[in-house]
Amino acid sequence: MRLKYVLNEVLVGLWRNVTMTVAMIITMSVSLTMLGASVLLYMQVDQMKNYYYGEIEVSIFLRTDVTEAQRTAIDQAISSNPLVQERTYETREEALKRFQELWKDSPEFVKSVGPNSLPESFRVKLKNPETYKTFTDQMTGMQGIQDIIDQRALLDKVFNIFNAIQVGALVVAGVMALAALLLVGNTIQVAAYSKRREVAVMKLVGASNWFIQAPFVLEAVVAGLIGAILGFVALFVGKIVLFDNKLQALTNILTPIDNGNVWLMLPLLAGVGALVSAVTAWVTLRFYLKV
Amino acid sequence: MADPAGLAFSLHRVDSVPVIQLENVTKTYPKASRPSLDDVSVGIEKGEFVFFIGPSGSGKSTIIKLLLHEVSPTQGKVVVNAKDVTSIRSWKIPHFRRSIGCVFQDFRLLPNRTAYENVAFALEVIGKTKAVSRRVVPEVLELVGLGGKEHRYPHELSGGEQQRVAVARAFVNRPLILLADEPTGNLDPDTSIEIMRLLDRINRTGTTVVMVTHDSNIVNQMRRRVIEIESGRIVRDQARGVYG
């Protein structure tokens, strides 16, 4: 009987104040969508880092007037450096060939580049990509080097943008969460007020605190769960629309978003939504009901 | 056998465990200039019927609140059913309240529930099953004289009948103590007397009844123990008293 009573009270409570319930669910779902997007982005950046950092190299471009002796000295310095895993040497001709391959869709651009415009280079793969700074510092002093370019530095710029988006999503999630919390608190107060007579009688005859509070807390939890499910659906639809259709070209660079990761958001959002609602409702009741 | 009264008296003494005991209780509300109760000590034994009388603001309602642990004493000890009320952990207070029934001036019934449902609600929210309600509620409604009116809503009942529902609700759990805070305050004299008869009947089942009132008529008719409070102090404690 008690379970039936509690569940019935929850449904009646949600329905009695239906506009507030809807507002609560919407803010909750927007907040959770943002949270989910932020977490997904974080996982995505992490995955891309793993993927790209394994591939990246440090390129040491040589001056066009580099002498044979300088080239040998650089080669030896690279080979004997303990940070280096492997190195390849790329002649001007090879560089040109690679360039032509890369830009084969724009023949005019290719034509404008002669065999001497591209420098020869050493492509160095480090044992640990994190040590590129040390390696670069060790190499910079050497004669005959035009430029040292670390792909990691380029990638970091890309990742910084992703991180900024992620932080932005988190901020929006936080602001919406605050609004959601206030709405939950308000809804619970209204619910407690509309049931003040019952609550007074329950306290009078000695109903236990959990029994008095459970319907209110569950009301908030149910709203939180519905918000979480809506948020998850929004994430899933967003993923399909944005990444699987509109931005498919980008996903070749971005590494595809794993569907498993998206599914992982469902328990995450549901857990966060339910827990946050429950705690807010409970805290509100402690102030409002004063058992 | 020569002195049956004396025997009864001595038995009574042996048996006299105070069910309510206030020891030097002082209660000062925050921001109040003087205490509502000032060093009050009083003992009430099991099965007694006690009136607390006194003008408004004398502190008599504070006693009810202390007994229910709605407020804590500033100083002193409140013992109910051999339990020091102030030492009860807050989460155990609901359970503690189940041994006390309460009746108020304003009845405090749920308007959208029938007489039966009002009483059953009190049982079911403390975990009793519907089967228990079905057995116990008609019985107690019969006891308070509402047989046949179980399915009326409060607005379909007279004031006296509503108060009977409230008494039924307070008594359905067979509490050791029944607290009544001005139970006749909203009722006409004849109805008040009927409610008093009901409380008297409940008292005869062994339930201790503590009633706060300033209805002199009733106090004078009942001739029970009267404790008069004025400005937070007990000024009179009489075994078979009148309003005075």
From TrEMBL, chain A:
InterPro entries the record matches: ABC3_permease_C, FtsX, FtsX_actino, FtsX_ECD
Domain ABC3 transporter permease C-terminal: 171-289
Subcellular location: Cell membrane
Domain named FtsX extracellular: residues: 56-148
Pfam families reported in the protein's UniProt record: FtsX (PF02687), FtsX_ECD (PF18075)
Keywords: Cell cycle, Cell division, Cell membrane, Membrane, Transmembrane, Transmembrane helix
Membrane topology: Multi-pass membrane protein
Transmembrane spans: 20-43, 161-184, 220-242, 262-285
Family: Belongs to the ABC-4 integral membrane protein family. FtsX subfamily.
NCBIfam families documented for this protein: FtsX_actino
Reported function: Part of the ABC transporter FtsEX involved in cellular division.
Subunit details: Forms a membrane-associated complex with FtsE.
Protein name as annotated: Cell division protein FtsX
Species for this entry: Paractinoplanes bogorensis
Phylogenetic classification of the source organism: Bacteria, Bacillati, Actinomycetota, Actinomycetes, Micromonosporales
